[in-house]
């Protein structure tokens, strides 16, 4: 306290900076519910999902045929074309993120590195490449901690990751991470986390993608396990459970009724919740 009084101006500036940053993550509006969204203008949206899983809603500005599935499982709604509100909200959010002031900088390339960053707005005027790199986002015990990465603030620049891992630490949540990209975003065999708002196409091949892939062009997933915000094992929503009778269709198992063996629980095998002993289930 005494030190803060002694350096009142510095403390006040720090507090104001923190308050400004706390308000600097614009809402995605109607676009927030999508795990994958191709918001290409003029009805040109296209989503191609091959040998992948997507947990969350998938949307395209194109016609229903613009969402192509080959060996792809989507757990969520497929909406094509999406509403004008979704497109407006996405484009508005994209512009708002573009206008946010930077508090830190990113190098043009990281190779074989381990990088730890606390909350902030990190920018590069051009493109950024992560190769064989681990990015640790340290929430410092604050579940509301947020990170915004801006790639290509000079007008051009792509985000590229190969064997790139994003790790959440000390209470950090992947749904509080945002990647604004002037042009394309490409992830290869990466463990990516966060919401990408891309000015061009998003392409992910292999690995995992936990967050949202939102683009002004096509989105292509090949051999990827993608989980949108609020679904799957990543930032899961709170659910009500059938206490003591199995995990059932709601996907929660408070009593660990199957004891790690999926063949021991009653209702996940088609039985009736509330009837122990797998009554009526698949035997």
Order of helices and strands: HHEEEEEEEHEEEEEEEEEEEEEE
DSSP helix fraction: 10-25%
Shape descriptor reads: globular
What is the helix tally? 3
Can you tell me the residue ranges where pLDDT is under 50 for at least 5 consecutive residues? Answer: 1-23, 231-283
Layout of helices and strands:
Blueprint: H1 2-6, H2 8-22, E1 34-38, E2 47-50, E3 53-55, E4 57-60, E5 67-70, E6 73-75, E7 78-79, H3 84-98, E8 104-105, E9 109-111, E10 114-117, E11 120-124, E12 128-131, E13 134-138, E14 147-151, E15 159-162, E16 165-169, E17 177-181, E18 185-198, E19 202-215, E20 219-222, E21 225-227
Parallel strand pairs: 1-4, 1-19, 2-5, 2-20, 3-6, 3-21, 4-7, 8-11, 9-12, 10-13, 11-14, 12-15, 13-16, 14-17, 15-18, 17-18, 18-19, 19-20, 19-21
